[in-house]
Amino acid sequence: MNERPADGLSLVARTAQLAQFLTEDVVLDPGRQAGVISGRDRLLALASRAPNGGGAFHVDFVDMSVQVNGDEAQAHLTAALSSTDARTGEPNVDAREVDLTLVKRDDWRIQRIVLVDVLERPPS
Amino acid sequence: MRQSGSFWREAIVGRRPARTLVRIGVLVVLSVAIFGWVFVPVRTYGPSMLPTYRSGSFHLVNRLAYRFRHPARGDVVAVRLAGPHVVYVKRIIGLPGESVAFRDGVVWVNGQPLDESYIESRQPWTTQSVVLGPDEFFVVGDNRNMPMSQHEFGRVRRERVEGPLVF
Q1: Is A121 close to B126, i.e. CB distance below 8 A?
Q2: How far is B66 from chain A (nearest CA, A)?
Q3: What per-residue confidence (pLDDT) applies to B4?
Q4: Do A123 and B128 touch (CB under 8 A)?
Q5: B interface residues, A as partner, C-beta within 8 Å
Q6: Who's near A4: CB < 8 A, 6+ residues apart?
């Protein structure tokens, strides 16, 4: 993910590839008292500009559990993100638990993404 | 005169190879069980537990300890962050039902300052007071000499506290 396409056409193709997994009204709740991000176009625009010192990052989805209820499904998984900082060469590893809400519209698509907060920081 | 081949064979597998193999199998199963579910190895990453634990150090988490006692103030524990293999390593400073706040770097619990002899130096962290729920603990790293904004800390539900570090 986040590999920088060589040209604009590649960027369009990559964006279309990711868009097929999301509903138009997808919502990302990053937790930690940050504001939610609504809309597929806005989410993809932010993802395409995600900084990583110029390098790509790799996302693995592990420990996944899914409950299906008709045309809706709830999934809980761990997203493990690994990358190499292009400036320092140091490996970066991070992981978060994620709750997904999926809906079936022609195909299963993600409607809501919630990053689970583990530690609730007290207000300053 | 015993042949050297049979001597080495007996030295390695014993006089009863079948029994030796069973013993090895039992040891392997016990090791997997102990280090996979009971004493789980973790490696710390980051500066938040300095000077107590340096980044990159290896430790064991006792996942059975809290089946026999409750988590206690001062325990350094593994907090499950994501899946069974990614944890925070933090120290418990607040127990269920208590109020916890930082005032100029000092922790106040139920209106009383907390004695933290393991802290070498501290920046003037200040937070509002929070009251912990019946199944919540307050955890924080030992490195208070870093900006509060860069330190992950706060209240955590009991179910995410995996166990204390034993080494």
Answers
A1: no
A2: 19
A3: 63
A4: yes
A5: 45, 79-84, 86, 88, 90, 100-102, 126-130, 139, 148, 152-156, 160
A6: A54, A56
Give the residue from A92, A96, A117, A118 with the most B CB atoms within 10 Å of its CB, the best one to mutate: A118
Backbone phi and psi for residue B80, each to the nearest 5 degrees, phi listed first: -65, 120
Give the HSE-up count for residue B112: Cα atoms under 13 Å, Cβ half-sphere: 7
Q: What is the rounded CA–CA span in Å between residue A39 and residue A110?
A: 12
Low-confidence ranges of chain B (pLDDT < 50): none
Task: Map tokens 């001597």 to a residue.
Answer: B7
Q: Which residues have C-beta within 8 Å of that of residue A14, sequence separation ≥ 6?
A: A3, A5, A48
* Amino acid letter, residue B77: V
For B68-95, how does the pLDDT look when each residue is reduced to its tens digit (9 = 90+)? 999 999 999 999 987 767 889 999 999 9
DSSP B73: T
Give the Å distances, CA to CA, from A30 to A34, A117, B86, B97, B152. Answer: 6, 9, 19, 28, 16
Mean pLDDT on A97-110: 91
pTM attached to this predicted model: 0.76
Q: What is the pLDDT of residues A66-87, one digit of tens each?
A: 999 999 999 998 888 777 776 7
Residue B125, SS3? Answer: coil
For residue A73, which of A18, A112, A27 has the smallest C-alpha distance? A112
Alpha carbon A63 to its chain centroid, in Å, reads: 16
